[in-house]
Each structure stands twice: as C-alpha cells, then as structure tokens.
Design brief:
It is built from 8 helices and 9 strands. A hairpin with a 2-residue loop joins strand 8 and strand 9. It folds into 2 domains: about 20-130; about 150-310, Nucleoside Triphosphate Pyrophosphohydrolase. By secondary structure, it is an alpha+beta fold. The protein is about 40% helix and about 15% strand. A 6-stranded mixed beta sheet has the order 4-1-6-5-8-9, with helices on both faces. It has helices spanning about 30-40, 45-70, 80-95, 110-130, 200-210, 275, 280-295, 305-310, and strands at about 150-155, 155-160, 170-175, 190, 215-225, 235-240, 265-270, 300, 305. This is DUF6415 family natural product biosynthesis protein. It comes from Streptomyces gamaensis. Belongs to the Nudix hydrolase family. Its cofactor is Mg(2+).
Length: about 300
C-alpha cells in the first residue's frame, strides 16, 4: 500500500527542511519566504518556477500536517484549539491533494500556489502556537508517516415493502465509536488485512459484522478519506453485492476483546433518511454508491464529494 506522504527529506533552494519541532529561523521560514518571493516576482514567475514551488509546498504540507494533528490531539478534547488545528491540517492536506497545478485549467498555477503557501503558513503558525517552545510528543512521525488505511465496504439492499416509497433500503450498522448520537451509522465492512484483496476483505468483514454471506458484484465507489487526529488518511472502497435470497437475517457479532469497535445496532435505511442516521460524509458516500449502481459507473470521491467537483 503506498504512503500518502513522502518519506525523504525535502530540499528547496539548497538544504533540507526539518520537521516543525526541529526547525530554526535559518531554514523553514526561509523556505516559505523564498516561495513567497517567487509568487511576488515581477515579471511574473515562469511555469518552471511555479511548478517547483507548487511541488515543494505540496511535499511540505503532506509531511507536516500530520505533525500538527498529532500535537493537537495531545490537548483536551474540549480545547477549541484542538478542533481548529485539526481543520487547518485537514484543509492543507486537502489542498495539497488537489491536482490544480500548471496546465489543469481549473485555476491559474499562480493562484493555486498562493493557496498552498497560505496553507503552509497556517500549518506552521498553528504548530508554533501549540508547541510553545517545548518538544511535543508526536503520534505521527512526519519523516516516516504511516501507510494509507484501506477499508472495503458493501452496499447491501433490500426492496422497499409497504413504506410507500420506491427506494430500496440500505443496510447500515452502528458501531460503538465516537460520533453524534444516532448519527454514527455506516455501511458494513472494515479494514483490509495485509496482502488481502479488497473484495475478499469486504466479504470477510461483512460476514464478521452481520453474519451475511455476500458475493461481490462490482466496485461502486473509491473514496479518499482525510486523516484525523487518531488515524492516517485512507481509501474506502464500496462494492455492490449479488442480490440476497429471501429476507436477509442480520446477526450482529458478540462482544469480542480483539475487536476495537463492537457493533451495537443495525438498520435498513431509506435514502431520504440517511442524514438522520449518518454523518454527512457517510450519507454522501451511500448516495454516490446508489447513483453508480444505477449508472453503471464508479464514483471517485474525496470524503464523499466528487473528486472532480472538489478539485474545481
């Protein structure tokens, strides 16, 4: 599985750029100021200069956003700085993941580079505010970041019967995890094991979580998920499954110490009620999967939003 962040030291205009907790006035600020000078140059910077600056900023953000998030999660859960720093890191990571560089036509290369520079400054400034001049414990090593987490999920449907709608019901499971009460339902499935094929992981996880034996039909969704304070960025794949005979009988797993998140409940949810049971990105993912099933295509998403709409 590829890693999202580079594992080698970044160089720009000479020397390597150290991690935020080891930086000094002679290196990291000089790097950011050198990019700023390129953007403010008259006449306008060349395409080659913009490309170099853009790529360097992307590497910088992808490498240091996890360090900011790791520092933020050392704060109390009710500390507003924790959520703010997380949003800054996620926003920078999202910008760095976009492909709006030179030649994309979505925005000018110069404007995109300005957005990245602003994100890099924000990440640096928030880290500085939280760090307070002390060495901070880091759960994420910015030099050797963790690999992408990968999950395989199933879109399991049953026909609508007697509820006055023509929409199918979607099987959703409610894990014992953080989230708004009544709104933490998700599609059944889970993490892939090392060396395991995604479709095989989906079948195994669905059986473990629901007791249902399903067969993959085709992939519907490829959804990139940003990092959180406790987990690296990842990819979630959603599969259509072959129709199940009769009325599916769901059997939730018994509590087991080796399972990190025990399932507490399940529900067959109609599309119009997804927002009542799911967090927004989960509801968007399910709707995208249903649309892909109807259209015969595969939806590429960024946290539940069309990857191409997000890039625009």
């Amino acid at each position: 599985m590829p890693v999202l962040c580079p594992g080698t030291a970044m160089t720009f205009g000479g020397g390597p750029i150290p991690p935020p907790h080891a930086r000094s006035p002679e290196d990291e600020p000089a790097f950011l100021e050198s990019v700023k000078a390129v953007l403010m140059a008259h006449p306008a910077p060349t395409a080659e200069q913009l490309t170099e600056s853009t790529n360097a900023l992307r590497r910088y953000i992808r490498r240091y956003a996890p360090a900011l998030k790791a520092l933020a999660v050392t704060l109390r859960a009710d500390d507003p700085r924790r959520a703010l720093a997380g949003r800054v890191a996620d926003g920078g990571f999202y910008r760095a993941a976009q492909q709006d560089g030179p030649g994309s036509g979505l925005m000018s290369a110069r404007d995109y580079c300005r957005l990245l520079l602003r994100a890099a400054y924000d990440i640096r400034d928030h880290y500085e505010k939280l760090h307070l001049g002390k060495e901070a414990p880091l759960d994420v090593d910015p030099i050797n970041p963790p690999p992408l987490r990968a999950t395989a999920l199933a879109l399991i449907l049953r026909p609508a019967e007697g509820d006055g709608t023509h929409e199918p019901h979607v099987l959703m499971v409610g894990p014992d995890c953080a989230g708004e009460t009544g709104r933490n339902f998700r599609l059944p499935g889970g993490a892939m094991r090392e060396g395991e094929a995604p479709s095989h992981a989906m079948v195994r996880e669905v059986r473990e979580e629901t007791g249902l034996d399903v067969a993959p039909a085709r992939m519907l969704v490829h959804d990139w998920v940003p990092a959180t304070g406790t987990a690296p960025a990842g990819i979630s794949l959603v599969y259509a499954v072959a129709p199940l005979p009769g009325e599916p009988e769901v059997k939730l797993p018994l509590p087991a110490p080796e399972r990190n998140a025990e399932l507490l409940s399940y529900k067959w949810v109609v599309v119009d009620e997804l927002d009542d049971y799911c967090m927004p990105h989960q509801a968007r993912r399910v709707r995208a999967a249903l649309a892909a099933l109807r259209n015969g295509d595969v939806a590429e998403l960024h946290h539940g939003v069309s990857a191409y709409a997000a890039a625009a």
